[in-house]
Write a structure and sequence with these properties.
This protein is mainly alpha-helical. It is built from two helices and no strands. α1 runs antiparallel to α2.
Length: 79
């Protein structure tokens, strides 16, 4: 069956979200490294990049916890 245009399945959306969080973490590492090497003196940019990466990670962790909880609930259902 062909998927309707613009629709993604759940695993594609999850993969995309994880890739986005990874990009945020890489950006934070690059900002930090640039600051440490003296290539940048923008502390606010470093802190903002770290905060974005942290929020992305925390959000991903919460989604994972909810999915795991739902999975456990389903597995404990009597049939």
């Amino acid at each position: 069956a062909k998927k309707p245009q613009g629709s993604e399945n759940f695993s594609d959306q999850l993969t995309s979200a994880l890739q986005e969080v990874n990009k945020l973490q890489i950006a934070a590492e690059e900002e930090t490294k640039a600051y440490q090497m003296g290539e940048s003196n923008d502390v606010a940019a470093v802190m903002m990049a770290k905060h974005k990466a942290s929020l992305g990670f925390e959000s991903t962790l919460q989604v994972r916890n909810k999915l795991l909880s739902a999975y456990k609930d389903i597995m404990n259902m009597s049939v």
